[in-house]
């Protein structure tokens, strides 16, 4: 009787483990936090695939109206800059109008899984369509940074906080990968008809000496809160670099959106994403 030789054979446990590991890595390590930090501080993360899809680069031929803002360097290491009049009132109104049909509950990522958790982040967010004004803001943000190479902008989101809305301490790093990371943040205030709602950096020292009084227009000088709290002022922005030149995340950039105690605060996130080898255009 003829027999057919079966090519099937059981794999050794070592082979099974190796194959499973490869499949797991190819699937993007589901179930594992994308990035684990030694001190377990929440990191504003998103799945790498979603991240790459959300990257944009403004049309270099775009004609944008001239706009002047005032730059105030708060710190050089890490670089933190307060930008007065980063947006005009008309631009802020346009962004708020664009947001109004799109507000949705803000989410956080934990172990790669997106969920709502109002004890960490209580607000609503809206993805902005890329109107010419929005693209001009993308352009302004890249131009402010000197058009860094291998750097694109993440699609812009606005964020609305009503009373008790807040965002607990976190890093914006998103990843500490040498090849892909959220290089910088602009926290822009579009609407600030509120009390509370400052952006607090508990590990940044308050100015001393001559600078002490000069900053009170932009930071809270009253009260004994931790570190430095930038005041929400409509049209202004706080800009900071999230990583040093070696690609190490600055621990000093941990920050929170403090609870709004009355009124409404509307913010805008502009994040610049470094992607090694990415040639924008
Ligand atoms: O609203 C704020 O002041 C901070 C918001 C923030 O940190 C964020 O959206 O990542
Ligand atoms: Fe943040």
UniProtKB/TrEMBL annotation:
Taxonomy, superkingdom: Eukaryota
Residue intervals of the Fe2OG dioxygenase domain: 148-274
PROSITE patterns: FE2OG_OXY (PS51471)
Protein species of origin: Friedmanniomyces simplex
An example Gene Ontology CC term for this record: endoplasmic reticulum
Signal peptide: none
InterPro entries referenced in this protein's UniProt entry, alphabetically: Oxoglu/Fe-dep_dioxygenase_dom (IPR005123), P4HA-like (IPR045054), Pro_4_hyd_alph (IPR006620), Pro_4_hyd_alph_FE2OG_OXY (IPR044862)
Entry protein name: Fe2OG dioxygenase domain-containing protein
Transmembrane segments annotated in the record for this chain: 12-37
Necessary cofactors: L-ascorbate
GO molecular function: iron ion binding; L-ascorbic acid binding; procollagen-proline 4-dioxygenase activity
A Pfam family reported for this protein in Swiss-Prot or TrEMBL: 2OG-FeII_Oxy_3
Keyword list, A-Z: Dioxygenase, Iron, Membrane, Metal-binding, Oxidoreductase, Transmembrane, Transmembrane helix
């Amino acid at each position: 009787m003829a027999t057919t030789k079966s090519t099937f054979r059981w794999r050794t446990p070592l082979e099974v483990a190796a194959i499973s590991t490869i499949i797991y890595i190819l699937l993007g390590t589901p179930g594992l936090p994308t990035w684990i930090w030694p001190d377990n501080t929440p990191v504003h993360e998103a799945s790498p695939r979603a991240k790459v899809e959300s990257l944009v680069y403004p049309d270099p031929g775009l004609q944008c109206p001239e706009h002047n803002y005032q730059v105030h360097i708060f710190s050089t290491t890490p670089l933190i800059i307060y930008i007065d009049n980063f947006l005009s009132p008309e631009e802020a109104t346009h962004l708020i109008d664009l947001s109004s049909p799109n507000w949705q509950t803000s989410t956080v990522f934990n172990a790669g899984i997106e969920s709502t958790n109002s004890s960490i982040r209580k607000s609503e967010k809206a993805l902005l369509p890329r109107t010419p004004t929005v693209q001009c803001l993308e352009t302004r943000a890249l131009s402010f940074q000197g058009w860094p190479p291998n750097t694109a902008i993440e699609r812009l989101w606005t964020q609305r906080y009503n009373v008790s809305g807040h965002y607990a301490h976190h890093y914006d790093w998103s990843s500490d990968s040498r090849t892909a990371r959220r290089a910088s943040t602009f926290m822009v205030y579009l609407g600030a008809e509120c009390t509370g709602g400052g952006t607090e950096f508990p590990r940044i020292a308050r100015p001393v000496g001559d600078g002490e009084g000069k900053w009170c227009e932009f930071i809270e000088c009253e009260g004994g809160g931790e570190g430095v709290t930038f005041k929400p002022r409509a049209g202004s922005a706080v800009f900071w670099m999230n990583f040093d030149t070696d690609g190490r995340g600055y621990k000093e950039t941990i920050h929170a959106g403090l609870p709004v105690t009355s009124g409404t605060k509307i913010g805008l996130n502009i994040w610049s994403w470094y992607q090694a080898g990415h040639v924008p255009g």
